[in-house]
Amino acid sequence: MKTFILCLCVLLASGCAAHGPLGSFCGPLPEQNATAAIASDAVSIIAGLYPPGHTTLHLLAAEKADNAFAVALEKGLRAKGFILADSPAAVTVGYTLDALEEKAVWYLQLRLTDKAGVKVIARPYTVSGLPEAGQSRSTLKEKL
Fold it and tell me: Which residues are the signal sequence here (predicted)?
């Protein structure tokens, strides 16, 4: 009986353990030009927060890692001067790109995890991949 209670406690305690960063998600993609424009804007946002050439990034892959957005984002980050590596010291970059059903707009959320905490940046885009007029970029900062 003591063994059963001990095993139960271990199982319950393991559920409280911290989980790693969420992966990335990419829903149905807009047309190629829009996808490239959204990826380019994401690169600009990341470059505004972290210095290219001095920052190593770990890009969390989506289920379909070869999607057009992931490819454009990776190329853009490398072209800007970021180092992409699977390193514990790297800034972890996760993303969600999906369509919003109410309107013909796309939604990008970037999740950037570094030693200081987690930054979540979200922005809506038009069908052509431009930031939607009248909507600002929203940022949420969490400490680890």
Answer: 1-19
